[in-house]
Amino acid sequence: xxxxxxxxxxxxxxxxxxxxxxxxxxxxxxxxxxxxAGVCHSDLHVMKGDQPMxxxxxxxxxxxxxxxxxxxGVTTVEPGDHVIPxxxxxxxxxxxxxxxxxxxxxxxxxxxxxxxxxxxxxxFRNSAGEPILHYAGVSTFSQVSTMPExxxxxxxxxxxxxxxxxxxxxxxxxYGAVMNAADVPAGxxxxxxxxxxxxxxxxxxxxxxxxxxxxxxxxxxxKLSYAAEFGATDFINxxxxxxxxxxxxxxxxxxxxxxxxxxxxxxxxxQAYDSTRKGGTCVVxxxxxxxxxxxxxxxxxxxxxxxxxxxxxxxxxxxxxLLKLIDLHRAxxxxxxxxxxxTYPLSQINEAYAALERGEVARSLVLPQEG
Length: 371
What we know:
This protein is of the alpha/beta class and 371 residues long. It has helices spanning 41-47, 95-98, 106-114, 161-182, 197-209, 221-229, 243-250, 266-274, 298-303, 318-330, 349-357, and strands spanning 2-8, 16-22, 29-39, 57-58, 63-70, 82-85, 124-125, 131-134, 144-148, 152-155, 189-193, 213-218, 234-237, 256-261, 276-284, 307-310, 340-345, 363-367.
């Protein structure tokens, strides 16, 4: 099958829109026609070379679509089913999967870093017949993508595919960081460093959890205004003041119970940790360059009994939590309408990423079927 896709050939070069060959699904695989794909910083890190990946590669890890074909042995979906791709596929059999931590599955991790399917091959070819790598096993920046059965979750047909795409990464990551990684109790004071797609979902989930003070920190005034819409109570422009001192000023000199870093840079990680009170918890959600190192005051870790932890995919069980988030949205508890700032046809994907870098959007989508 042929499909239009946005292919990354070199870091710091625009994605190339071209027709690629998509091989049919093999045993245990499904072929999905993507109707929405999220514009996320994780892909931008690869495009800019901050996260090294072999190339050429079709990026995109957040999306939603409809199953077109299935391979032998597939039992959980059939053609016509609406699905959300899981960008951290889990095998369901290893120690991590069986202990309720599927995002740490070695199979999904290997796919993420090799760009290959579990059999060591790819399902994409360019016009010269050369293989193109997969990103996170799903490659949602293609109109059609072949992926493992374990990389899709069936959702109700009446769910908007645009809403479903948002849930697949940004929402579930922010939600899980609050509910799973931190387990924020009602009455807590929270600080969120970075008010992009992940940070805004940390904010709205902290509100859902009953946090009484939610401090939003960013360098972009536009993002702070988005934070207000999603439930932040206080705002700090990190370009104008020291965020650690500002957080302490807002909390009677004590600091917050929970701080979340949703950027992926050493300085805000350090600031988030330093802004927590005694016994507080700092959760790092942002994806940093591999060489990044943050300086942590170890004495504070011990004497103040602080906790520093990371969270990938919101420390969630996607097959359960994605459906839970759909129910929360239907109940009016999770706002997806205001989260979606703009949509673009696939042909404008580079413009979509330029807008993301300028901080102009809360979350945006490309619509692959619009070409």
